[in-house]
Amino acid sequence: MRLSELLSKAPANEEAQVERFLNARLAWGKHKTIEVGKVAINFKCKTCDDVRTFMSGDKLSCLGVGDRVVSIDACLKCPVCEAAIEAWFLVVSRDELDGPAPTVRLERYVDNRRGMASRVGVGAGDFDDLLERAQLAYEVQLGAGSMVYLRKIFEAITNQVADIAGIPTTGNNGGRKPFRNLLQEVDEQHHIIPLAFSSDGYKLFRELSEIVHGDSSDEVALQKYHPCRRLVIGIIQNVASDQEMKRAIDALGWNIDRVNVSPSGVMAP
Question: Quick one: 47 and 74 in the same domain?
Fold first, then answer.
C-alpha cells in the first residue's frame, strides 16, 4: 500500500504497512517533498452541489516532528470546479519511518474547507450536521463536546419517533416525561435500540450524560467516543429501516437514506 491510500481513508485512524516514503531520517523541523501517490477524499462540493473526490497533487509536504512522527500537508482540489481545500495529517510509525516498509497509523487529521466543501454525511438528514459536529469535536480532542452532540441526536430522534407514534412526551403532571421512561415506551413499540444493546438502552444515554455533566474526563470521553457513535448511528439505522417510521419520515421530509458506518465508527458515503 502506498501512503496516499492510507491518508485517503481519513478521518479514520487506520494503520497499515506502506511502501518506503523516506530514504533517510527526517530531523525535527525539517521539510521534505515526498511522492506517495495522490490523496483522494470525498467531500460535498458546495460549488458543484454534488459529492466529488477531491484530489491532491503528486507531491506532498512532509515535516519531521519526532523520531517516528511526521506531519503531512496537502492541498486537495475538486476535479470539476477546482475548488481547493487544505488537509493536514499526523502520521506515527511503529518502527523507523525511513524503513523499507514502515507500519504507520494516521494519528490525527484536520481539514480546512474554507466554506468550499462539507464532509460527506451518512444520509441521516438533519442529523448529519450533528454527527459532523461530533466528529470534528473528537478530532480536536474535545471529548465532552463530541458527546454533547451525540446525546442531542439520541434525545432528538427518540422524541421525534415518540411524536410520530403518538407516545406522550409529558407526564401526568404536565411536566417533561423522564427520558428513561420515554425511551422504554418508544423502544417497546419500534425497537430503536440496536439489538446488541437492547437489554439496557438507557445505559448509552447514561454514559453520554455522565460525560456531558462533567463526571468523566475528556480523555475518557475520547476513549468512549467511537462505540457511543456507532450505537447512536445504529439507532438512526433502526428508525430509517422501520417501515412505519419510514413512511412517516418521508411525509415529514427528513430525507433519511441508507445509513452506513464503517467498523471504526466513521461515517461512510
Answer: yes
Instruction: Say if residues 143 and 218 touch (Cβ distance below 8 Å).
Output: yes
Residue 159 CB contacts under 8 Å (≥ 6 apart), including other chains: 169, 182
Cβ neighbours of residue 199 under 8 Å, at least 6 residues apart? Answer: none
61 lies in some domain: yes
Q: What is the pLDDT of residues 177-200, one digit of tens each?
A: 888 888 888 888 888 887 766 655
| Domain enclosing residue 196, as ranges | 127-252
Closest CA to 98 of 72, 73, 70: 70
* Assigned domain for 262 exists: no
**CA 200 to CA 159: how far, in whole Å?**
18
Other Cβ atoms closer than 10 A to 80:
11
Return d(Cα 118, Cα 111) in angstroms, integer: 10
Q: Are 95 and 110 a contacting pair, CB within 8 Å?
A: no
* pLDDT tens digits, 222-252: 888 888 888 888 888 787 776 555 565 555 5
Q: What's the number of domains the chain is made of? A: 2
Query: Each residue of 174-190: b (16+ CB within 10 Å) or e?
Result: eeebebeebbebbbeeb
Look at residue 194 and give its three-state secondary structure. coil
**264 lies in a domain?**
no
Note whether 246 and 148 are same-domain residues.
yes
- SS3 category, 81: coil
